[in-house]
Amino acid sequence: MNERRPDYKKYPPRQAQDRSIEMVFGLRPIMEALQAGKTLEKIYLLKGAKNTIVSDISALARAAGTPISLVPNEKLDNLTRKNHQGAVAFLSPIDYAPLDNLLPTLFEQGKTPLILVLDRITDVRNFGAIARSAECLGVDAIVVPTHGAAQMNGDALKTSAGALTRVPVCRESNLHATLRRLKDSGLQIVACTEKGDESLEKAGIDMTGPLVVVMGSEEDGISPELLDLSDARLRIPMIGQIGSLNVSVASGILLYEVLRQRLVTGDK
């Protein structure tokens, strides 16, 4: 019996690169997207390009808090083979929330805020996994830096199991200034670091009140300037030989301790 072979032309191979977020290319389309209030994840502009539209895009992006990277033409050609005119951008699959508006709303609703600040966490799957734990464990908002954060793309959304569409994500240009504002608003700052002064199980830190949890980069942890603002530096006890945890696992452990304390006292 002759076996019918499939027509492989109908089933093109999957592209290795994720394309689940929409690309915008060309100077005018990117400027129009910004003017229309579209949330752009990132803009790539040709390094050294100087004209009125580039200046307008830069000004609109700064006002919207959208990160810009100045790159060589080869980088832009790798992003798209279309006529990009020295400009490529990606639409974000979510809208970022303004933290300054969110915090008063939480207090007005009678909630005890729990804010998670991610300092330069760049791995997309780590970011998605952290967001998933954050949603399960009662985090009210996730704060990321404008520059040096994982890209918000399809992999992040998939790994988060939809959590990134449920937990507000706030993009801040200066995490030091953001932590200072949160501290001035009465939130306790707890940093999770393997160099912490106190072990989590012995610290006796009350985390039932308004709280910020800070988690650091996969490479070098939390920035020293952010650590200086923390009210407590906690390390997670370990007995293995490796001596460090994946940041998404560490985030889940610390956030669970926060939830455990709040469930005991009835604050959640």
Automatic annotation (TrEMBL):
Where does the RNA 2-O ribose methyltransferase substrate binding domain start and stop, copy by copy?
23-97
Query: Does the keyword Methyltransferase belong to this entry?
Result: yes
Q: Which UniProt keywords apply?
A: Methyltransferase, Transferase
- Single Gene Ontology BP annotation: methylation
Task: Give the GO molecular function terms.
Answer: RNA binding; RNA methyltransferase activity
A cellular component annotation (GO) from this entry: cytosol
- Name the SMART domains for this protein: SpoU_sub_bind (SM00967)
Query: Is Transferase tagged as a keyword?
Result: yes
Its protein name is: 23S rRNA (Guanosine(2251)-2'-O)-methyltransferase RlmB
- InterPro entries referenced in this protein's UniProt entry, alphabetically: Alpha/beta_knot_MTases, Ribosomal_eL30-like_sf, rRNA_MeTrfase_TrmH, SpoU_MeTrfase, SpoU_subst-bd, tRNA_m1G_MTases_N
